[in-house]
Input
Amino acid sequence: MRSIRIVNVTKSYDGENILKDFNLTIPSGQFFVLLGPSGSGKTTLLRLIAGFESVDSGKIYLGDNDITNEPINKRKINTVFQNYALFPHLDVFDNVAYGLKVKKVPNDIIEQKVTKIIEVMRLSKHIYKPIQQLSGGQQQRVALARAIVNEPDVLLLDEPLAALDVKLRERMLMELVDLQNNFKTTFVYVTHDQNEALTVGHNIAVLNEDGEVEQFGTPKEIYEFPASSFAATFIGTTNLLKGVLEIGSEPKIIIEGLGSFSVVIDGTKKWASNGMNVFMSLRPEKIRITKKELKLNENHIQGKVASIIYQGRFTQYNVKLANNSIIQVFEQNEEHIPQEDIKLHDNVNLYWQKENAVLLEK
Amino acid sequence: MKNLKEKFFDNIPFFVSVPAILWQVLFLCLPILFIFYMALANGLFAFTFEYFRGILDWVHLRIIVRSLLVAMLNASLCLLIAYPVAYFLALKAKKMKNFLLFLLTLPAWVNFLIQVYSWFFVLERNGIINKILLSTGIISDPLHMINNQFAISLVMFHIYLPFMIVPLYNILEKFDPQLIDASLDLGANRIVTFFRITFPLSLSGVYLGFFLVFVMTFGEVVIPMFLGGNKTLFVGTLISEYFFGARNMHTGAAFTLLSSMFMGATLLLLYILMKNKIKTSLSLKG
Output
Protein backbone atom coordinates (compact mmCIF):
# COMPACT_ATOMS: atom_id res chain seq x y z
CA MET A 1 0.00 0.00 0.00
CA ARG A 2 1.29 3.43 -0.93
CA SER A 3 -1.44 5.57 0.59
CA ILE A 4 -0.72 8.41 2.94
CA ARG A 5 -2.93 8.97 5.94
CA ILE A 6 -2.62 12.15 7.96
CA VAL A 7 -4.44 11.93 11.26
CA ASN A 8 -5.13 14.89 13.55
CA VAL A 9 -1.88 16.59 12.67
CA THR A 10 -1.12 19.94 14.25
CA LYS A 11 1.88 22.05 13.29
CA SER A 12 2.74 25.58 14.31
CA TYR A 13 5.64 27.96 13.77
CA ASP A 14 6.39 30.66 16.32
CA GLY A 15 3.07 30.08 18.03
CA GLU A 16 1.10 30.40 14.82
CA ASN A 17 -0.94 27.40 13.78
CA ILE A 18 -0.27 26.37 10.21
CA LEU A 19 -2.20 23.14 10.44
CA LYS A 20 -4.66 22.29 13.19
CA ASP A 21 -6.15 18.83 13.70
CA PHE A 22 -5.59 18.20 10.02
CA ASN A 23 -6.94 15.00 8.49
CA LEU A 24 -6.39 13.78 4.95
CA THR A 25 -6.13 10.46 3.18
CA ILE A 26 -4.18 10.34 -0.06
CA PRO A 27 -5.20 7.23 -2.00
CA SER A 28 -2.58 4.75 -3.16
CA GLY A 29 -1.26 4.94 -6.70
CA GLN A 30 -2.98 8.19 -7.58
CA PHE A 31 -1.90 11.50 -8.96
CA PHE A 32 -3.03 13.58 -6.04
CA VAL A 33 -3.02 17.37 -5.97
CA LEU A 34 -2.87 19.64 -2.95
CA LEU A 35 -4.25 22.92 -4.23
CA GLY A 36 -4.33 26.09 -2.21
CA PRO A 37 -3.27 29.70 -2.05
CA SER A 38 0.09 30.61 -0.57
CA GLY A 39 -0.03 30.40 3.19
CA SER A 40 -2.52 27.55 3.16
CA GLY A 41 0.02 25.16 4.66
CA LYS A 42 0.33 22.91 1.62
CA THR A 43 4.11 23.11 1.54
CA THR A 44 4.25 22.53 5.29
CA LEU A 45 2.11 19.46 4.77
CA LEU A 46 4.51 18.21 2.11
CA ARG A 47 7.51 18.81 4.36
CA LEU A 48 5.80 16.88 7.14
CA ILE A 49 5.13 13.94 4.84
CA ALA A 50 8.72 14.01 3.55
CA GLY A 51 10.04 14.28 7.09
CA PHE A 52 11.84 17.63 6.89
CA GLU A 53 9.63 18.84 9.71
CA SER A 54 8.16 16.95 12.61
CA VAL A 55 4.55 17.21 13.72
CA ASP A 56 3.60 18.89 16.99
CA SER A 57 0.92 16.26 17.47
CA GLY A 58 -0.90 13.70 15.35
CA LYS A 59 0.20 10.80 13.18
CA ILE A 60 1.28 10.21 9.62
CA TYR A 61 0.91 6.75 8.05
CA LEU A 62 2.44 5.38 4.89
CA GLY A 63 0.17 2.45 4.08
CA ASP A 64 -0.22 0.79 7.47
CA ASN A 65 3.11 1.95 8.86
CA ASP A 66 3.31 4.81 11.29
CA ILE A 67 6.09 7.00 9.88
CA THR A 68 5.50 9.97 12.17
CA ASN A 69 8.88 9.59 13.85
CA GLU A 70 10.79 7.89 11.07
CA PRO A 71 13.83 9.93 9.96
CA ILE A 72 13.77 11.44 6.44
CA ASN A 73 16.43 9.18 5.03
CA LYS A 74 14.55 6.03 6.07
CA ARG A 75 11.22 6.98 4.52
CA LYS A 76 10.38 5.45 1.14
CA ILE A 77 9.32 8.87 0.00
CA ASN A 78 11.20 11.16 -2.38
CA THR A 79 10.78 14.82 -3.17
CA VAL A 80 11.10 16.94 -6.28
CA PHE A 81 11.94 20.42 -5.06
CA GLN A 82 10.61 23.65 -6.44
CA ASN A 83 14.13 24.86 -7.30
CA TYR A 84 15.19 21.27 -8.10
CA ALA A 85 18.01 21.37 -5.51
CA LEU A 86 20.32 19.49 -7.87
CA PHE A 87 23.87 18.97 -6.64
CA PRO A 88 25.92 21.54 -8.56
CA HIS A 89 29.25 19.69 -8.20
CA LEU A 90 27.94 16.46 -9.74
CA ASP A 91 27.03 15.70 -13.35
CA VAL A 92 23.67 14.38 -14.49
CA PHE A 93 24.62 10.75 -13.98
CA ASP A 94 25.99 11.26 -10.47
CA ASN A 95 23.00 13.38 -9.46
CA VAL A 96 20.62 10.64 -10.50
CA ALA A 97 22.82 7.92 -9.01
CA TYR A 98 23.15 9.70 -5.67
CA GLY A 99 20.23 8.02 -3.89
CA LEU A 100 21.27 4.53 -4.96
CA LYS A 101 24.90 5.20 -4.14
CA VAL A 102 24.30 6.26 -0.57
CA LYS A 103 22.13 3.19 -0.13
CA LYS A 104 25.17 1.11 -1.18
CA VAL A 105 23.49 -0.48 -4.17
CA PRO A 106 26.06 -2.46 -6.23
CA ASN A 107 27.66 -0.38 -8.97
CA ASP A 108 26.49 -2.48 -11.92
CA ILE A 109 22.86 -2.19 -10.78
CA ILE A 110 23.25 1.55 -10.29
CA GLU A 111 24.69 1.87 -13.78
CA GLN A 112 21.78 -0.08 -15.22
CA LYS A 113 19.00 1.71 -13.36
CA VAL A 114 20.40 5.19 -13.84
CA THR A 115 21.02 4.69 -17.54
CA LYS A 116 17.48 3.41 -17.96
CA ILE A 117 15.76 6.27 -16.14
CA ILE A 118 17.93 8.82 -17.95
CA GLU A 119 16.77 7.26 -21.20
CA VAL A 120 13.13 7.41 -20.10
CA MET A 121 13.61 11.07 -19.26
CA ARG A 122 15.22 11.70 -22.69
CA LEU A 123 18.45 12.91 -21.10
CA SER A 124 20.81 10.36 -22.65
CA LYS A 125 22.56 13.03 -24.67
CA HIS A 126 23.36 14.96 -21.51
CA ILE A 127 24.30 12.10 -19.20
CA TYR A 128 27.81 13.34 -18.34
CA LYS A 129 27.11 17.07 -18.57
CA PRO A 130 27.42 19.28 -15.53
CA ILE A 131 24.08 20.50 -14.21
CA GLN A 132 24.83 24.13 -15.02
CA GLN A 133 24.85 23.38 -18.75
CA LEU A 134 21.25 22.15 -18.77
CA SER A 135 18.15 24.19 -19.52
CA GLY A 136 15.38 24.63 -16.97
CA GLY A 137 13.27 21.87 -18.45
CA GLN A 138 16.23 19.48 -18.55
CA GLN A 139 17.11 20.25 -14.93
CA GLN A 140 13.51 19.55 -14.05
CA ARG A 141 13.75 16.14 -15.67
CA VAL A 142 17.01 15.39 -13.84
CA ALA A 143 15.28 16.25 -10.57
CA LEU A 144 12.45 13.86 -11.47
CA ALA A 145 14.85 11.12 -12.51
CA ARG A 146 16.88 11.55 -9.32
CA ALA A 147 13.76 10.98 -7.25
CA ILE A 148 12.10 8.24 -9.29
CA VAL A 149 15.19 6.07 -9.69
CA ASN A 150 14.84 5.22 -5.98
CA GLU A 151 11.43 3.67 -6.69
CA PRO A 152 9.73 5.51 -3.86
CA ASP A 153 6.28 4.53 -2.58
CA VAL A 154 5.31 8.17 -2.72
CA LEU A 155 6.73 10.97 -4.83
CA LEU A 156 6.24 14.49 -3.51
CA LEU A 157 6.33 17.37 -5.99
CA ASP A 158 6.54 20.87 -4.56
CA GLU A 159 5.36 23.27 -7.28
CA PRO A 160 7.90 21.63 -9.61
CA LEU A 161 6.93 23.59 -12.71
CA ALA A 162 6.80 27.06 -11.19
CA ALA A 163 10.12 28.10 -12.74
CA LEU A 164 9.28 27.02 -16.30
CA ASP A 165 7.65 29.03 -19.08
CA VAL A 166 4.06 28.34 -20.09
CA LYS A 167 4.68 26.11 -23.12
CA LEU A 168 7.26 24.02 -21.31
CA ARG A 169 5.01 23.76 -18.27
CA GLU A 170 2.18 22.36 -20.37
CA ARG A 171 4.48 19.77 -21.91
CA MET A 172 6.00 18.79 -18.56
CA LEU A 173 2.50 18.36 -17.10
CA MET A 174 1.73 15.80 -19.79
CA GLU A 175 5.05 14.06 -19.15
CA LEU A 176 4.27 13.91 -15.44
CA VAL A 177 0.91 12.31 -16.17
CA ASP A 178 2.59 9.70 -18.41
CA LEU A 179 5.27 9.09 -15.79
CA GLN A 180 2.71 8.49 -13.09
CA ASN A 181 0.82 6.16 -15.42
CA ASN A 182 3.97 4.12 -16.04
CA PHE A 183 5.25 3.91 -12.49
CA LYS A 184 1.94 3.79 -10.59
CA THR A 185 3.70 5.54 -7.73
CA THR A 186 1.55 7.79 -5.58
CA PHE A 187 2.25 11.35 -6.71
CA VAL A 188 1.49 14.17 -4.32
CA TYR A 189 1.61 17.39 -6.27
CA VAL A 190 1.53 20.73 -4.50
CA THR A 191 0.46 23.77 -6.48
CA HIS A 192 -1.41 27.05 -6.28
CA ASP A 193 -2.19 26.86 -9.99
CA GLN A 194 -5.72 25.60 -10.56
CA ASN A 195 -5.03 24.79 -14.21
CA GLU A 196 -2.22 22.44 -13.28
CA ALA A 197 -4.42 20.87 -10.62
CA LEU A 198 -7.31 20.25 -12.99
CA THR A 199 -4.98 18.89 -15.68
CA VAL A 200 -3.08 16.27 -13.70
CA GLY A 201 -5.08 15.36 -10.63
CA HIS A 202 -7.03 12.15 -10.16
CA ASN A 203 -8.15 13.74 -6.94
CA ILE A 204 -7.68 17.22 -5.59
CA ALA A 205 -7.75 18.50 -2.04
CA VAL A 206 -8.48 22.21 -1.94
CA LEU A 207 -6.95 23.95 1.07
CA ASN A 208 -8.03 27.36 2.27
CA GLU A 209 -5.95 30.08 3.93
CA ASP A 210 -6.59 28.61 7.39
CA GLY A 211 -5.00 25.30 6.43
CA GLU A 212 -8.27 23.39 6.28
CA VAL A 213 -9.49 21.05 3.55
CA GLU A 214 -12.19 23.01 1.83
CA GLN A 215 -13.11 20.29 -0.62
CA PHE A 216 -11.89 16.89 -1.71
CA GLY A 217 -12.82 15.37 -5.05
CA THR A 218 -12.06 14.74 -8.70
CA PRO A 219 -11.28 17.77 -10.86
CA LYS A 220 -14.73 17.54 -12.43
CA GLU A 221 -16.51 17.34 -9.09
CA ILE A 222 -14.61 20.32 -7.78
CA TYR A 223 -15.12 22.42 -10.87
CA GLU A 224 -18.75 21.59 -11.51
CA PHE A 225 -19.91 21.21 -7.94
CA PRO A 226 -17.81 23.41 -5.70
CA ALA A 227 -18.59 22.92 -2.03
CA SER A 228 -18.03 26.50 -0.98
CA SER A 229 -17.61 29.94 -2.47
CA PHE A 230 -13.88 29.66 -1.68
CA ALA A 231 -13.57 26.53 -3.81
CA ALA A 232 -15.80 28.03 -6.51
CA THR A 233 -13.73 31.21 -6.85
CA PHE A 234 -10.31 29.62 -6.35
CA ILE A 235 -10.78 27.04 -9.09
CA GLY A 236 -11.73 28.62 -12.35
CA THR A 237 -13.76 31.79 -12.76
CA THR A 238 -17.24 32.16 -11.41
CA ASN A 239 -19.96 34.67 -10.71
CA LEU A 240 -20.91 34.63 -7.07
CA LEU A 241 -24.36 36.05 -6.35
CA LYS A 242 -25.65 36.56 -2.83
CA GLY A 243 -29.32 36.10 -2.05
CA VAL A 244 -32.03 34.67 0.17
CA LEU A 245 -33.32 31.13 -0.29
CA GLU A 246 -37.02 30.60 -0.67
CA ILE A 247 -38.24 26.99 -0.62
CA GLY A 248 -41.74 26.85 -1.97
CA SER A 249 -43.14 24.56 -4.64
CA GLU A 250 -39.97 25.31 -6.55
CA PRO A 251 -36.85 26.48 -4.69
CA LYS A 252 -35.74 29.98 -5.65
CA ILE A 253 -33.00 32.40 -4.72
CA ILE A 254 -34.10 36.01 -4.33
CA ILE A 255 -31.35 38.47 -5.19
CA GLU A 256 -31.86 42.06 -4.21
CA GLY A 257 -32.41 44.30 -7.20
CA LEU A 258 -32.41 41.43 -9.70
CA GLY A 259 -35.40 39.27 -8.91
CA SER A 260 -35.78 35.56 -8.20
CA PHE A 261 -34.14 32.63 -9.93
CA SER A 262 -34.84 28.91 -9.83
CA VAL A 263 -32.23 26.75 -8.17
CA VAL A 264 -31.77 23.04 -7.55
CA ILE A 265 -31.54 21.60 -4.06
CA ASP A 266 -30.25 18.05 -4.23
CA GLY A 267 -29.32 15.53 -1.55
CA THR A 268 -25.97 17.19 -0.83
CA LYS A 269 -27.63 20.44 0.30
CA LYS A 270 -29.16 19.21 3.55
CA TRP A 271 -28.30 22.51 5.20
CA ALA A 272 -30.74 24.39 2.95
CA SER A 273 -33.66 25.97 4.79
CA ASN A 274 -36.23 28.59 3.95
CA GLY A 275 -35.14 32.20 4.38
CA MET A 276 -31.40 31.63 4.87
CA ASN A 277 -28.68 33.72 3.24
CA VAL A 278 -26.96 31.75 0.47
CA PHE A 279 -24.66 32.18 -2.51
CA MET A 280 -25.16 31.06 -6.05
CA SER A 281 -22.11 30.19 -8.13
CA LEU A 282 -22.65 30.57 -11.85
CA ARG A 283 -19.74 29.75 -14.17
CA PRO A 284 -19.37 32.31 -17.00
CA GLU A 285 -19.40 29.63 -19.71
CA LYS A 286 -22.78 28.25 -18.54
CA ILE A 287 -24.54 31.47 -19.46
CA ARG A 288 -25.97 32.10 -22.88
CA ILE A 289 -25.73 35.69 -24.08
CA THR A 290 -27.91 37.15 -26.86
CA LYS A 291 -29.49 40.41 -27.94
CA LYS A 292 -32.69 38.58 -28.87
CA GLU A 293 -35.38 37.71 -26.40
CA LEU A 294 -35.89 33.97 -26.38
CA LYS A 295 -38.95 32.14 -25.10
CA LEU A 296 -37.09 29.69 -22.91
CA ASN A 297 -37.99 28.02 -19.70
CA GLU A 298 -34.69 29.14 -18.18
CA ASN A 299 -33.49 31.73 -15.72
CA HIS A 300 -33.34 35.05 -17.46
CA ILE A 301 -31.74 38.37 -16.66
CA GLN A 302 -31.10 41.54 -18.62
CA GLY A 303 -28.08 43.81 -18.64
CA LYS A 304 -25.82 46.08 -20.61
CA VAL A 305 -22.42 45.12 -22.01
CA ALA A 306 -19.82 47.05 -20.00
CA SER A 307 -16.71 45.62 -21.62
CA ILE A 308 -15.65 42.97 -24.12
CA ILE A 309 -12.40 41.05 -23.90
CA TYR A 310 -11.47 38.89 -26.83
CA GLN A 311 -9.57 35.78 -25.65
CA GLY A 312 -9.19 33.80 -28.85
CA ARG A 313 -11.01 30.63 -27.89
CA PHE A 314 -13.78 32.58 -26.31
CA THR A 315 -14.95 36.13 -25.80
CA GLN A 316 -15.50 37.49 -22.34
CA TYR A 317 -18.40 39.88 -21.83
CA ASN A 318 -18.70 41.84 -18.62
CA VAL A 319 -22.39 42.64 -18.32
CA LYS A 320 -23.70 45.28 -15.97
CA LEU A 321 -26.93 44.27 -14.26
CA ALA A 322 -29.81 46.30 -12.87
CA ASN A 323 -28.25 46.40 -9.39
CA ASN A 324 -24.97 47.67 -10.87
CA SER A 325 -23.14 44.41 -10.24
CA ILE A 326 -21.08 42.91 -13.04
CA ILE A 327 -21.56 39.38 -14.32
CA GLN A 328 -19.01 37.62 -16.53
CA VAL A 329 -20.06 35.62 -19.54
CA PHE A 330 -17.79 33.49 -21.74
CA GLU A 331 -19.01 32.81 -25.23
CA GLN A 332 -17.25 30.17 -27.29
CA ASN A 333 -16.03 31.61 -30.60
CA GLU A 334 -17.50 28.88 -32.78
CA GLU A 335 -17.70 30.79 -36.02
CA HIS A 336 -15.37 33.09 -37.88
CA ILE A 337 -18.21 35.52 -38.47
CA PRO A 338 -20.78 35.27 -35.69
CA GLN A 339 -24.44 35.56 -36.71
CA GLU A 340 -25.06 37.95 -33.89
CA ASP A 341 -22.63 40.79 -33.31
CA ILE A 342 -22.68 42.00 -29.73
CA LYS A 343 -21.11 45.39 -29.23
CA LEU A 344 -20.20 47.54 -26.29
CA HIS A 345 -23.21 49.10 -24.47
CA ASP A 346 -25.63 46.75 -26.21
CA ASN A 347 -28.56 45.58 -24.12
CA VAL A 348 -28.34 41.83 -23.80
CA ASN A 349 -30.32 38.93 -22.37
CA LEU A 350 -28.61 36.28 -20.28
CA TYR A 351 -30.05 32.77 -19.90
CA TRP A 352 -28.95 29.78 -17.83
CA GLN A 353 -30.46 26.48 -16.76
CA LYS A 354 -31.05 26.09 -13.06
CA GLU A 355 -29.07 22.81 -13.07
CA ASN A 356 -25.94 24.72 -14.08
CA ALA A 357 -25.89 27.03 -11.08
CA VAL A 358 -24.61 25.78 -7.72
CA LEU A 359 -26.17 26.78 -4.44
CA LEU A 360 -23.60 27.42 -1.70
CA GLU A 361 -24.00 27.73 2.04
CA LYS A 362 -20.94 29.98 2.53
CA MET B 1 39.77 58.90 -36.32
CA LYS B 2 39.07 59.38 -32.68
CA ASN B 3 40.27 62.59 -31.22
CA LEU B 4 42.41 62.81 -28.12
CA LYS B 5 39.48 63.39 -25.77
CA GLU B 6 37.64 60.30 -26.94
CA LYS B 7 40.78 58.25 -26.61
CA PHE B 8 41.18 59.47 -23.07
CA PHE B 9 37.66 58.47 -22.10
CA ASP B 10 38.01 55.09 -23.77
CA ASN B 11 41.02 54.42 -21.62
CA ILE B 12 39.67 55.59 -18.27
CA PRO B 13 39.72 52.07 -16.80
CA PHE B 14 43.43 51.91 -17.56
CA PHE B 15 44.21 55.29 -15.99
CA VAL B 16 42.24 54.41 -12.88
CA SER B 17 44.24 51.22 -12.43
CA VAL B 18 47.60 52.94 -12.80
CA PRO B 19 48.12 53.73 -9.08
CA ALA B 20 47.42 50.12 -8.14
CA ILE B 21 49.81 48.84 -10.79
CA LEU B 22 52.51 51.26 -9.66
CA TRP B 23 51.99 50.21 -6.08
CA GLN B 24 52.36 46.55 -7.00
CA VAL B 25 55.48 47.18 -9.03
CA LEU B 26 57.10 49.34 -6.37
CA PHE B 27 56.32 47.33 -3.29
CA LEU B 28 55.91 43.78 -4.55
CA CYS B 29 57.65 43.16 -7.86
CA LEU B 30 60.75 45.23 -7.19
CA PRO B 31 61.45 43.77 -3.73
CA ILE B 32 61.04 40.26 -5.13
CA LEU B 33 63.44 41.06 -7.95
CA PHE B 34 65.79 42.49 -5.36
CA ILE B 35 65.64 39.24 -3.38
CA PHE B 36 66.48 37.25 -6.52
CA TYR B 37 69.30 39.61 -7.29
CA MET B 38 70.72 39.41 -3.77
CA ALA B 39 70.52 35.64 -3.72
CA LEU B 40 72.08 35.00 -7.10
CA ALA B 41 74.26 37.96 -8.02
CA ASN B 42 77.94 38.18 -7.49
CA GLY B 43 78.90 41.68 -8.54
CA LEU B 44 76.77 43.46 -11.07
CA PHE B 45 76.42 40.92 -13.87
CA ALA B 46 77.95 37.73 -12.52
CA PHE B 47 75.76 34.97 -11.17
CA THR B 48 76.67 32.58 -8.45
CA PHE B 49 75.13 29.72 -6.47
CA GLU B 50 77.60 30.29 -3.69
CA TYR B 51 74.99 31.61 -1.22
CA PHE B 52 72.70 28.69 -1.89
CA ARG B 53 75.54 26.25 -1.40
CA GLY B 54 76.07 27.81 2.00
CA ILE B 55 72.58 27.01 3.24
CA LEU B 56 71.98 23.62 1.62
CA ASP B 57 72.65 21.63 4.74
CA TRP B 58 70.67 19.67 7.32
CA VAL B 59 70.57 22.55 9.79
CA HIS B 60 68.71 24.82 7.38
CA LEU B 61 66.62 22.01 5.99
CA ARG B 62 65.52 21.02 9.48
CA ILE B 63 64.38 24.59 10.17
CA ILE B 64 62.33 24.64 6.97
CA VAL B 65 60.77 21.26 7.71
CA ARG B 66 60.00 22.30 11.29
CA SER B 67 58.29 25.48 10.03
CA LEU B 68 56.33 23.48 7.47
CA LEU B 69 55.14 21.05 10.15
CA VAL B 70 54.13 23.85 12.53
CA ALA B 71 52.30 25.63 9.71
CA MET B 72 50.57 22.40 8.71
CA LEU B 73 49.55 21.70 12.29
CA ASN B 74 48.23 25.21 12.78
CA ALA B 75 46.32 25.31 9.50
CA SER B 76 44.77 21.89 10.19
CA LEU B 77 43.81 22.86 13.71
CA CYS B 78 42.29 26.12 12.52
CA LEU B 79 40.35 24.30 9.80
CA LEU B 80 39.04 21.74 12.27
CA ILE B 81 37.79 24.36 14.70
CA ALA B 82 36.82 27.06 12.19
CA TYR B 83 34.62 24.84 10.04
CA PRO B 84 31.93 24.20 12.67
CA VAL B 85 32.05 27.87 13.70
CA ALA B 86 31.68 29.10 10.12
CA TYR B 87 28.96 26.53 9.46
CA PHE B 88 27.03 27.65 12.49
CA LEU B 89 27.43 31.32 11.62
CA ALA B 90 26.46 30.88 7.99
CA LEU B 91 23.60 28.41 8.27
CA LYS B 92 22.29 28.26 11.83
CA ALA B 93 22.78 31.62 13.54
CA LYS B 94 19.97 33.64 12.07
CA LYS B 95 19.37 36.83 14.04
CA MET B 96 22.64 36.71 16.01
CA LYS B 97 24.76 36.35 12.89
CA ASN B 98 26.01 39.93 12.56
CA PHE B 99 26.67 40.32 16.26
CA LEU B 100 28.64 37.07 16.40
CA LEU B 101 30.67 38.06 13.34
CA PHE B 102 31.42 41.35 15.07
CA LEU B 103 32.62 39.50 18.16
CA LEU B 104 34.82 37.38 15.95
CA THR B 105 36.64 40.39 14.53
CA LEU B 106 36.91 42.10 17.89
CA PRO B 107 40.39 40.74 18.84
CA ALA B 108 41.74 42.11 15.57
CA TRP B 109 41.00 45.60 16.84
CA VAL B 110 43.80 45.18 19.32
CA ASN B 111 47.32 45.62 18.03
CA PHE B 112 48.94 42.34 17.06
CA LEU B 113 51.94 42.84 19.37
CA ILE B 114 49.68 43.62 22.30
CA GLN B 115 47.70 40.47 21.62
CA VAL B 116 50.87 38.40 21.68
CA TYR B 117 52.11 40.16 24.84
CA SER B 118 48.76 39.59 26.54
CA TRP B 119 49.18 35.89 25.97
CA PHE B 120 52.50 36.14 27.70
CA PHE B 121 50.81 37.39 30.86
CA VAL B 122 48.18 34.72 30.61
CA LEU B 123 50.62 31.84 30.22
CA GLU B 124 53.67 32.84 32.25
CA ARG B 125 54.75 31.27 35.54
CA ASN B 126 52.84 33.87 37.56
CA GLY B 127 50.16 34.29 34.93
CA ILE B 128 46.41 34.10 35.31
CA ILE B 129 46.06 30.43 34.46
CA ASN B 130 48.71 29.29 36.89
CA LYS B 131 47.30 31.52 39.62
CA ILE B 132 43.80 30.17 39.21
CA LEU B 133 44.93 26.56 39.04
CA LEU B 134 47.20 26.98 42.09
CA SER B 135 44.61 28.77 44.21
CA THR B 136 41.95 26.15 43.48
CA GLY B 137 44.45 23.44 44.35
CA ILE B 138 44.22 21.60 41.04
CA ILE B 139 48.00 21.81 40.69
CA SER B 140 50.67 22.25 43.34
CA ASP B 141 53.48 23.48 41.07
CA PRO B 142 53.02 26.14 38.38
CA LEU B 143 52.65 24.71 34.86
CA HIS B 144 55.40 25.41 32.38
CA MET B 145 53.40 26.95 29.57
CA ILE B 146 55.72 29.47 28.04
CA ASN B 147 58.86 29.47 25.91
CA ASN B 148 57.87 26.21 24.29
CA GLN B 149 56.08 24.86 21.25
CA PHE B 150 52.81 24.72 23.16
CA ALA B 151 52.75 28.49 23.64
CA ILE B 152 53.71 29.11 20.02
CA SER B 153 51.03 26.85 18.59
CA LEU B 154 48.35 28.06 20.97
CA VAL B 155 48.87 31.72 20.12
CA MET B 156 49.26 31.05 16.40
CA PHE B 157 45.94 29.22 16.55
CA HIS B 158 44.29 32.12 18.30
CA ILE B 159 45.66 34.80 16.01
CA TYR B 160 45.01 33.01 12.73
CA LEU B 161 41.64 31.40 13.46
CA PRO B 162 39.64 34.33 12.01
CA PHE B 163 41.60 34.07 8.75
CA MET B 164 40.17 30.57 8.41
CA ILE B 165 36.66 31.39 9.57
CA VAL B 166 36.05 34.28 7.19
CA PRO B 167 36.70 32.47 3.85
CA LEU B 168 34.73 29.46 5.08
CA TYR B 169 31.89 31.66 6.23
CA ASN B 170 31.87 33.42 2.88
CA ILE B 171 31.53 30.23 0.92
CA LEU B 172 29.08 28.54 3.30
CA GLU B 173 26.82 31.55 3.30
CA LYS B 174 26.25 30.97 -0.40
CA PHE B 175 25.51 27.30 0.22
CA ASP B 176 21.90 26.33 -0.43
CA PRO B 177 20.68 24.43 2.66
CA GLN B 178 18.01 22.81 0.54
CA LEU B 179 20.76 20.62 -0.90
CA ILE B 180 21.03 19.06 2.56
CA ASP B 181 17.29 18.39 2.50
CA ALA B 182 17.67 16.86 -0.94
CA SER B 183 20.50 14.59 0.20
CA LEU B 184 18.64 13.42 3.30
CA ASP B 185 15.53 12.90 1.20
CA LEU B 186 17.52 10.62 -1.13
CA GLY B 187 18.47 8.42 1.80
CA ALA B 188 21.82 9.77 2.97
CA ASN B 189 22.41 10.32 6.66
CA ARG B 190 23.84 13.55 8.03
CA ILE B 191 27.47 12.41 8.00
CA VAL B 192 27.34 11.16 4.42
CA THR B 193 25.55 14.36 3.44
CA PHE B 194 28.31 16.43 4.96
CA PHE B 195 31.14 14.62 3.22
CA ARG B 196 29.43 14.26 -0.14
CA ILE B 197 27.57 17.56 -0.45
CA THR B 198 28.41 20.27 2.06
CA PHE B 199 32.16 19.80 2.29
CA PRO B 200 32.88 19.38 -1.43
CA LEU B 201 30.83 22.49 -2.16
CA SER B 202 32.79 24.52 0.39
CA LEU B 203 36.18 23.39 -0.93
CA SER B 204 37.20 26.73 -2.41
CA GLY B 205 36.78 28.27 1.05
CA VAL B 206 38.72 25.41 2.60
CA TYR B 207 41.60 25.86 0.16
CA LEU B 208 41.69 29.61 0.59
CA GLY B 209 41.55 29.53 4.39
CA PHE B 210 44.02 26.68 4.68
CA PHE B 211 46.59 28.22 2.34
CA LEU B 212 46.19 31.64 3.88
CA VAL B 213 46.81 30.38 7.41
CA PHE B 214 49.54 28.05 6.19
CA VAL B 215 51.49 30.78 4.43
CA MET B 216 51.17 33.26 7.28
CA THR B 217 52.13 30.74 9.93
CA PHE B 218 55.08 29.53 7.88
CA GLY B 219 56.67 32.99 7.88
CA GLU B 220 55.68 33.96 11.41
CA VAL B 221 58.40 35.90 13.26
CA VAL B 222 56.89 37.63 16.26
CA ILE B 223 55.16 34.73 18.00
CA PRO B 224 58.18 32.40 18.17
CA MET B 225 60.35 35.32 19.22
CA PHE B 226 58.12 36.46 22.08
CA LEU B 227 56.60 33.22 23.28
CA GLY B 228 59.08 30.61 22.08
CA GLY B 229 61.95 32.06 24.07
CA ASN B 230 63.93 32.12 20.82
CA LYS B 231 65.09 28.61 21.64
CA THR B 232 63.98 27.01 18.42
CA LEU B 233 64.56 28.64 15.07
CA PHE B 234 61.86 28.94 12.46
CA VAL B 235 62.04 30.16 8.90
CA GLY B 236 60.75 33.61 9.80
CA THR B 237 63.07 34.11 12.72
CA LEU B 238 66.10 32.90 10.80
CA ILE B 239 65.39 35.20 7.84
CA SER B 240 65.09 38.19 10.14
CA GLU B 241 68.28 37.03 11.88
CA TYR B 242 70.19 36.95 8.56
CA PHE B 243 68.91 40.34 7.44
CA PHE B 244 68.91 42.34 10.65
CA GLY B 245 71.08 40.39 13.05
CA ALA B 246 73.97 39.08 10.99
CA ARG B 247 73.51 41.62 8.20
CA ASN B 248 74.13 38.79 5.76
CA MET B 249 71.70 39.88 3.07
CA HIS B 250 72.92 37.46 0.39
CA THR B 251 72.47 34.36 2.50
CA GLY B 252 69.21 35.75 3.86
CA ALA B 253 67.85 36.25 0.36
CA ALA B 254 68.97 32.79 -0.70
CA PHE B 255 67.34 31.25 2.35
CA THR B 256 64.15 33.22 1.70
CA LEU B 257 63.99 31.84 -1.83
CA LEU B 258 64.77 28.30 -0.72
CA SER B 259 62.10 28.26 1.98
CA SER B 260 59.58 29.85 -0.39
CA MET B 261 60.27 27.07 -2.88
CA PHE B 262 59.67 24.47 -0.22
CA MET B 263 56.46 26.17 0.82
CA GLY B 264 55.20 26.42 -2.75
CA ALA B 265 56.01 22.77 -3.40
CA THR B 266 54.23 21.70 -0.23
CA LEU B 267 51.11 23.70 -1.09
CA LEU B 268 51.07 22.32 -4.61
CA LEU B 269 51.42 18.79 -3.30
CA LEU B 270 48.66 19.33 -0.75
CA TYR B 271 46.37 20.78 -3.39
CA ILE B 272 46.90 17.87 -5.76
CA LEU B 273 46.42 15.33 -2.99
CA MET B 274 43.21 16.96 -1.72
CA LYS B 275 41.81 17.31 -5.20
CA ASN B 276 42.41 13.69 -6.12
CA LYS B 277 41.08 12.45 -2.81
CA ILE B 278 37.84 14.33 -3.30
CA LYS B 279 37.52 13.29 -6.94
CA THR B 280 37.78 9.62 -6.14
CA SER B 281 35.45 9.85 -3.18
CA LEU B 282 32.80 11.48 -5.36
CA SER B 283 32.96 9.40 -8.49
CA LEU B 284 30.86 6.33 -8.89
CA LYS B 285 33.81 3.99 -8.97
CA GLY B 286 35.13 5.20 -5.60
